[in-house]
Design a protein that fits this description.
By secondary structure, chain A is α/β, with parallel strands linked by helices. Chain A is built from 18 helices and 23 strands. Chain A is globular, with a radius of gyration of 24 Å. The N and C termini of chain A lie far apart (59 Å). Chain B is globular and about 85 Å long. Classes of the chains: A alpha/beta, B mainly alpha.
């Protein structure tokens, strides 16, 4: 079975204004094979699978399905052919039930042909151990459950090819192994799987074969089980880039910023708020907050940065001074810098130039008698662009014209440049290519060594283990105690991310 | 083949070309309108565009029309820059006129300069108070500022009508809805003997220039623009939203109130029901035509002023109805909004795609991409060297 091809791409290319997203990509996928599509952000993985799923049309080349050339015009057609896709961002309606969501996504004729949709859902859910209950409302589901709902949605239509776009980035390690069981079972039944990822370890665990994309074209192919993560990484980034190494850990006990019993009501109906969070940021230490998205990260960031000033004044202290009621500007004046979760639209104003975006968090230094000191602003902007190798036309480039990774380099550079006493850093390398990511890591370590207290909130647990001195987990607004990274391991933190620490914490409180 | 593509960066050039294209398109469409009305378009444009600047008297009248437009539009532009949809300049102007008149009717021939200043101050404060109502409601209850300011325009209009029929009416006026004619001592100084334009136009231009300076060169202006573009970024930077919203709303109210005051104690010289031929609404178009840039608004208010004058002249010379002005404004705003699309998108002529052309573009793009990569690897090397 594994030797017949299901899908074949012949010299497929796709262009967007100013970029070659895919350049003569050739790819073969056999029946029942799990193929990894590896590559950095911007390597063209998503564009490629979107063409297979009918979202985009290739500018050049051909797609063969069961040895026949096909033109896939729309996702509807792709689904009818037996191609299912689970996107990174789920397209589910939170106010509807699981069953209603499934029904909405199906073709009308298909639903008519089924005798009992509910029973079908239950059957499939049992068969693959998806544990999806048809009557539950989607807003009450965890991210992992939502993903299983999306997979079930694909399975119900006799899927022959299942495409998953970075499915594990939102899951806890335990959920990941559950997902892998389901995928392996599917593959054993003859379903082919195209698995997009940039996490090398997962690929080694799961996939039969890996195709590596770099800069839009295929840069290599390998059997992951015969490679080391390092050798695959080289294929992804090329020989030149410098990869992150491990960094020496450093522990300290001088508290610079702390939250004391900080509780906040959710800021929106589906948020989860914060529950009695005690967090200490020590001088010269990086503390990492692990957790799956939607467990209170936004609330914690807003409370720490001062975007949200609902917290009682004394519940947050900076060098012993109560700062709960200070807004973000006042906290910045004290020496707190902040790299926010949203680069474009929070960390930078999309329509404004890099100069103006430099001014955004440097208003104290660069304004005299109310007037902006344009010379100094120019110098500082150029310095940030240069020292961080931000790729842009010049300092007048609009923030929205920069790629995500470049903008992140700019924002981190801008914040680090202030030599802050505290740096709050959200998802520092999310969507940033490996080369730039290791540059950012080195920058954070350097800042730590100069005595800054840093908190990094990230969903990437590997990253946290690499750069953080201490690590804690956030689950439904509860924060675990912080432990030295050296004295824990990914498995333990993985359990904590899923709420495993709650029990301990309650006992301690009692 | 034409294809519409989003621009990677918004076009600054297009931001200024867009109003010009809009004006040209408006002229084309209104030519059809004039033909339908049996008037030669060339004659009509002569009346609308050339006559307003043909002699010193007409230029003076043009300034009389442009002055209040400029004042209102400057205030509105700052509001719109801050993403606050204040439609209330008309109401603020009208209550400014009423308050100013309430002071002005007290003046006698011998009143000093102080009364004139008091009349102006009354107008300004009234305009600010009128703007404070929707701001307060917005800050406290999140009411929609568009709706509350529009509603206050009507309340302002009826306040004016009540005042000219009641407390401020001329006691010897045989019940006509108008106040006494104000004493000369309370009237604003004229710019020239030949005409009605007062120094308020100079003040208006000065304020527009200052607003432009503040908007682009100072911290409050920067905060305002950030807040308007992106509230999340303003919160991130720690800019106080209350100060920004109150600041621009009160400033806009003050300018509109000043415009109202300087109408009644200026060219009009008394309080009448028709203080404003819709200046507060036309100022919205003026603000956009001037690209929400106070300097650009100086030009666009002159343009809109000439439309107002032109419609007066067209009524006299061509027998056209004054509704023409409204039509002009509507068509202009329509085209302006349509043309602004070009700031963010470009329309490209794409030659029909053939296999050969496709190969050529492919090659070109590869070359570009390679150039980029070379730059990158040099950067990386430089960086490594530095480390």
């Amino acid at each position: 079975m594994k030797n017949t091809t299901l899908l074949e791409l012949w010299n497929v290319s796709k262009f967007f204004p100013g970029v070659v997203a895919n350049d003569n990509v050739n790819l073969k996928l056999h029946h029942g094979e799990i193929l990894a599509l590896l590559g950095e952000n911007g390597a063209g993985k998503s564009t490629l699978v979107k063409m297979i799923y009918g979202v985009n049309k290739p500018d050049q080349g051909a797609i063969l399905w069961n040895q026949q050339e096909v033109d896939i015009h729309s996702p509807n057609q792709a689904r009818a052919m037996g191609i299912g896709m689970v996107f990174q961002h789920f397209s589910v309606f939170e106010t509807l039930t699981v069953l209603e969501n499934i029904e909405l996504g199906l073709d009308k004729h298909f639903v008519k042909g089924l005798t009992d949709l509910r029973q079908t859902v239950v059957d499939i859910s049992e068969k693959y151990e998806l544990h999806v209950e048809p009557e539950r409302y989607v807003h009450s589901l965890s991210i992992g459950e939502r993903q299983r709902l999306e997979i079930l949605r694909c399975l119900i239509q006799n899927v022959k090819l299942l495409i998953l776009d970075e499915p594990t980035s939102v899951l806890t390690p335990q959920e990941v192994s559950g997902l892998f069981r389901v995928l392996k079972r599917l593959a054993s039944e003859g379903c082919s799987i195209l698995f997009i990822s940039h996490k090398l370890k997962e690929v080694t665990d799961l996939c039969d074969r890996a195709v590596i994309l770099r800069g839009g074209s295929v840069s290599g192919e390998c059997i992951p089980s015969q490679q080391t993560p390092n050798s695959i990484a080289r294929m992804m980034v090329g020989q030149d880039a410098q990869l992150s190494a491990s960094y020496p850990k450093s522990l300290n006990s001088n508290v610079r910023l702390e939250t004391i019993d900080l509780s906040l009501a959710p800021s929106h109906p589906f948020g989860c708020g914060l529950k009695q969070v005690d967090l200490q940021l020590n001088v010269g230490e990086i503390i990492g907050i692990a957790g799956v998205a939607g467990n209170g990260q936004e609330d914690l960031l807003a409370a720490l940065s001062g975007e949200d000033t609902r917290a009682p004044d004394h519940s947050m202290q900076f060098n012993g001074k109560a700062i709960g009621k200070l807004d973000a500007g006042e906290r910045r004046r004290l020496g707190m810098a902040y790299v926010p979760a949203d680069r474009l639209g929070q960390g930078a104003v999309p329509e404004m130039s890099l100069s103006e975006n430099t001014l955004l968090t440097n208003t104290d230094k660069l304004v005299k008698y109310g007037f902006v000191l344009s010379n100094k602003l120019e110098q500082l902007t150029n310095k940030i662009i240069k020292t961080n190798t931000v790729k842009c036309r010049n300092r007048f480039s609009q923030a929205k014209s920069l790629s995500g990774g470049n903008l992140q380099k700019f924002i981190i550079g801008r914040e680090v440049e202030q030599s802050p006493q505290v740096l709050i850093c959200a998802h520092p390398t999310w969507g940033v290519d490996i080369g730039a990511a290791s540059a950012i890591h080195r920058q954070l370590i350097e800042l730590r060594n100069s005595g800054t207290a840093i908190v990094v909130i990230s969903e990437d647990i590997d990253e946290l283990f690499m750069i953080c001195d201490r690590i804690a987990a956030l689950y439904e607004g509860n924060l675990s105690k912080a432990v030295a990274t050296d004295s824990t391991n990914i498995e333990e933190i993985g359990k904590w991310i899923a709420g495993g620490f709650i029990h301990h914490k309650e006992q301690q409180h009692a | 083949m034409l294809s519409v593509q989003p621009r990677i960066e918004s076009s600054k050039k297009m931001a200024w070309f867009s109003p010009i294209i809009a004006i040209v398109l408006t002229m084309l469409v209104s030519s059809l309108m004039f033909l339908a009305l049996g008037v030669s378009p060339t004659k009509a444009f002569e009346v609308f565009i050339l006559q307003p600047v043909s002699d010193t008297y007409n230029i003076g009248e043009l300034m009389v029309k442009a002055g209040p437009l400029l004042l209102c539009a400057t205030g509105l532009a700052l509001c719109y820059r801050a993403n606050i949809w204040n439609i209330g300049a008309e109401g603020q102007l009208l209550v400014g006129a009423v308050a100013s008149s309430a002071v002005a009717i007290q003046a006698t021939q011998n009143s000093g300069f102080g009364v004139l200043l008091l009349a102006l101050a009354a107008g300004i404060v009234a305009g600010m108070l009128w703007a404070a109502i929707p701001t307060f409601l917005y800050r406290l209850f999140h009411t929609n500022i568009i709706l509350s300011t529009i509603m206050l325009n009507y309340i302002g209009l009826y306040t004016l009508l009540w005042a000219v029929h009641g407390p401020l009416a001329d006691p010897d006026g045989f019940g006509f809805p108008e106040s006494i004619i104000f004493a000369d001592s309370v009237l604003l100084p004229l710019l020239s003997d030949n005409g009605r334009a007062t120094i308020s136009i100079v003040v208006a231009v000065g304020l527009a220039l200052l607003s432009g300076l503040a908007l682009y060169k100072t911290l409050p202006g920067f905060k305002l623009r950030v807040y308007g573009e992106d509230q999340a970024a303003a919160r991130y930077a720690g800019f106080n939203s209350g100060k920004i919203v109150w600041g621009v709303m009160l400033f806009a109210g003050a300018l509109a109130g000043f415009a109202g005051a300087s109408e009644v104690i200026g060219p009009i010289g008394q309080l009448i029901p028709s203080v404003s031929p819709g200046y507060g609404y036309a100022a919205i178009i003026v603000a956009y035509l001037g690209r929400l840039n106070p300097i650009g608004i100086i030009l666009s208010s002159l343009f809109m002023g000439s439309l107002y004058m032109g419609s007066d002249l067209a009524q006299i010379e061509l027998g056209l109805p004054t509704a023409i002005t409204g039509l002009f404004q509507g068509i202009l705003l329509f085209f302006l909004l349509a043309c602004d699309y070009l700031i963010f998108y470009q329309i490209k002529v794409v030659p029909r795609e053939t296999e050969k052309r496709r190969q050529e573009t492919l090659l070109q793009m590869k070359r570009d991409a390679n150039d980029m990569n070379e730059v990158t690897s040099e950067d990386t090397k430089a960086q490594q060297g530095a480390l």
